Amino acid sequence: MGLFDKLAGWLGLKKKEVNVLCLGLDNSGKTTIINQLKPSNAQTQDIVPTIGFNIEKFKTSSLSFTVFDMSGQGRYRNLWEHYYKEGQAIIFVIDSADKLRMVVAKEELDTLLNHPDVKHRRIPILFFANKMDVREALSSVKVSQLLCLENIKDKPWHICASDALRGEGLQEGVDWLQDQIRTLRT
Amino acid sequence: MSSSADVSGEASKWLDAHYDPVANLYTFTSCVDLADLGGDGENKLVIGDLGDGSCGMKLKVYRGTALVSESTLLDLPTGLVSFLMDLHEPRIPAVAVASGPFIYVYKNLRPYFKFTLPGLEVNALEQDVWRQAREGQIDPLALKELLEGVRDTADVPLSARSLRYLALEREDMQEFVSLHKAQPVRRQTVITCIGTLRKSTADEDGVSCLVIGAESSDVYILDPEAFTILSKLSLPSAPTMMDVTGQFDVEFRITVACRNGNIYILRRESTKPKYCIELSSHPVGLVRVGKNVVVGCAEEQLQGFTQKGKKLWTASLPAPITTMAAMDLPTRGFQAVLVGLANCEVHLYREKNLVSVIKTPDVVTGLRFGRYGREDGALVMTTKGGGLAVKILKRTATFDERDGAPGPPPAQSVRLNVPKKTKLYVDQTLREREHAAAMHRAFQMDLSRVRLAAAKAYVKALEAGLTPVSARPSVPLKMNAVVQGLGPAFKLTLNVQNTAACRPILNLTVSFLYDVGLYSMRTPYFRIPLLVPGPVYPFETLVECTSDKGISDVIKVFVLHDGKTAPLLTAHINMPVSEGLALT
Fold this sequence. Notes:
The complex is a heterodimer of chains A (about 190) and B (about 575). Chain A has helices at about 5-10, 30-35, 100-115, 115-120, 140-145, 170-185; strands at about 15-25, 55-60, 65-70, 90-95, 125-130, 155-160. Chain A has about 190 residues and is an alpha/beta fold. Chain B has seven helices and 36 strands. In chain B, the strands form nine sheets. Chain B has a four-stranded antiparallel sheet with strand order 1-28-27-26, with no helix packed on it. Chain B has a four-stranded antiparallel sheet with strand order 2-3-4-5, with no helix packed on it. Chain B has a four-stranded antiparallel sheet with strand order 6-7-8-9, with no helix packed on it. The longest helix of chain B is centred in the C-terminal third of the chain and has 29 residues, at about 435-465. Chains A and B meet through helix 3 of A and strand 1 and strand 27 of B.
């Protein structure tokens, strides 16, 4: 890092870069959430199922996020673990209306937490209990119970009820994530 | 394998997604299907609920864990299938429910069409008897007697109405006759099983025909749009279960388990069964895996057959079979058979190997594996007590082949690392195959030449006396030479023998030929006295190696006859290397 970059960093002109992994089952709303977090002029209108993964960038007041928006389809889930090393934070999206596959989400979360690249690192995990607009959606408390989130002791985590279609609850989650990354850095 | 290992093994394969022990679902595998009824990419669970057997029959649709639709059925369902009946967009499948002689087709979960199987031929005598009853010519008792007579003699069986009448008590007869006599007599068959067959394409979203097995031992294939009978196939017995594969317009194969305990295989080209499998006990489950058919038998056995009816294997089960279903995961290339057992277990067989055991809280009566919701590997189970359970196959699940049967060890099937055949090798092989006769001839010719050359050389050697054995009949001699000593002085002993029967040999001399720079010899030429036949005469001479370079040479020995230039015998002596130095 050059002197000018350092100076810019002190002065708050240049934002710190942070890599975030966005994970979750297919059709849970990962791409929609990331799309909502992007500046309004960069948003796309139609969201299609992600193949492989997309890299998206957006900025908050103090950080510059690079998001790996991974595909959630069963056949692409084995790609996730190759990006754990690079991720400094994880966003895990859950379809609150899909009660049947809550066990699958829990299974994937457990696999993630037990992976050697994640297990001993204190990386913040943000959960979005998405699709709150659907009538039969479970509450965020119920989702955290079903996923046994209380068992995560060694990592900071936070669960947010969200409705990615209208952007509700997303800012709260991202603010929490930003605070966490800043406290971890200092 | 212990039971605890089993349980932990199962926990690593299946996730418990949903279990509702009081779902109030009473059904069988034939009435359970998974289909995308909403056209939104999410498969729903469609169930024909038998209720308590006399009322409460319902068509139920589940989405995820919740019941989303329920509509009353008029009669007990015997089979339920979802199928695409037209090419309209969106491609929403219709649901066909078979009950009695009818098929009710639902589209968008609304009744759409009712198909009735064609009636059967009615006994003319029976018809006549009922006509007489209608016209009041005979009283109910006479009617009963006449019908009994018809039943016992005629080859066409009685209609359901007459049979019911014969079973009635005397006081109910009058009422029954007055109620039914106005209607014409009909004989109707009932549907026993139902399946689907793609019309012309093998695609997943192709239009499908309905295939119906009826009690009258017939199999009908219906057109998906017009519901006309495209084809009628007949069997020797009433079908109970069937499996359909192929396309109607191209080639198809219907495997039917019949009530007489046999399995028949029908094909497109003939209306009669092509192959027959005779089982030792009644079939209770029929599943096709790839090209093979797996049959569950009443004697707690699972048997595998080829599509031509050849038996491949048999596996014994710990309990009677309640139901069977196929498990097909095309994304992983995994095909197996799920077998529901009466001991509250579901076994998963791949070929004849048991690869997984699922413990269930109740006896499973209905099984279906497929895409449910958005999950490809979902297993839907309905239980005897009316429960509904959904399990999801883990993404990381692997099924290891555990072959319990004794056989060759696995090491035997490990392929050896044999290098690939090179192009040269293949060309050579081809050439050898094509020109075998010519090559053999060429080889034989070369062999003869070699033999000739060898014989010529031998004869020449004999004639020139180049050998240590003289073959000349006049002077039969044998000689060998021995070298003794370490050097530089060697002792050379020649053992000469006259091998003639009685004649002595005279006038022989021995001469040595050697490199004079290397060796010096005391007597390089001497005469041999008279040789009596028989004994071996040793002649000794001393050789001294004069060189100190540590090299050796050959010394040639000639046995000569006076007055002849060609030697009688020749011996080559390979001198050893001199170990010492000559004293000078």
